[in-house]
Specification:
The chain is an alpha+beta fold. It is built from 2 helices and 5 strands; from the N terminus they run H-E-E-E-H-E-E. Bound molecules: adenosine monophosphate. The site of adenosine monophosphate has 12 residues, from loops.
């Protein structure tokens, strides 16, 4: 199976504006930002989507959720932000590597489209 674009970013085969990296996750700016701040947070483990999470991923998922507010603070999103995880075709998922969108820097409408 061919690598996803996010795996290629992890492997440094294509460039990205990386804002955070540690042993478990990588965070980088979305190439097509939907808000003034739009960051993607991904596990280094190639989990295709939230549908593919298993019990042994609990520590990874916990780490992602604990990293997200730290990144939001680093980005100055003091007025709030949104975290989005798209899953599957109806959910709008286009890259089959689990990712959390952090969107902020403007008021965000609800409901989403
Ligand atoms: P989703 O539609 O939830 O699967 O989100 C995938 C996101 O990846 C979209 O917001 C794209 O703009 C973003 N994206 C695709 N390719 C790249 C890339 N090379 N670097 C950064 N973001 C990307």
């Amino acid at each position: 199976m061919s690598k996803t674009i996010f795996q290629r970013i992890i492997d440094r085969e294509i460039p990205a504006q990386i804002v955070h990296e540690d042993d478990i996750c990588l965070a980088f700016r979305d190439v097509n930002p939907q808000a003034p701040t739009h960051i993607l947070v991904i596990p280094k483990k190639p989990i295709p989507s939230i549908d593919h999470l298993v019990a042994e991923d609990a520590a990874t998922v916990s780490h992602l959720w604990l990293t997200i507010p730290r990144l939001a603070a680093d980005q100055g999103l003091a007025d709030g932000y949104r975290v989005v995880v798209n899953c599957g075709s109806d959910g709008g998922q286009t890259v089959d590597h689990l990712h959390f969108h952090i969107l902020g820097g403007r008021p965000l409408a609800w409901p989403p489209g």
